[in-house]
Amino acid sequence: MTNPFQSDPDFATSPRRAHWFFRYKLYHIPFWIVYHYIWWVVALGNPLKVVEALFTTSIIKFFFYVILQALAVYFNLYFLIPRYLEKGKYAQFLVYLCLTILVTAAMIVPGYYLGGVGGG
């Protein structure tokens, strides 16, 4: 009987055999773009208005959201959780998590200004 995971390149036994798209985890990029697009559709209420906004200066603001929020999520997943949460350091984890959220939000704000400058 064949193993169903052998046909999936993401679960290949050798990283060299995996497709480059899965080997470098590039499927995360379309995920984050679609994720934020859906939230903008919820906020604006019209998918066509979101597409129209993305082809104007809002693309700068959009990329600030996508990149910075993804960085914050991966920082939480790969640094904060293993170092603090899994070791039972709950207070430190919550403090650093709140700081991560505040810093990420503060770094997203310049995207609004750069979008405004780009718009003339």
TrEMBL record:
Annotated TM spans: 26-42, 62-81, 93-114
Alphabetic keyword roster: Membrane, Transmembrane, Transmembrane helix
Name of the protein in question: Fumarate reductase subunit C
Lineage: Bacteria, Pseudomonadati, Bacteroidota, Cytophagia, Cytophagales
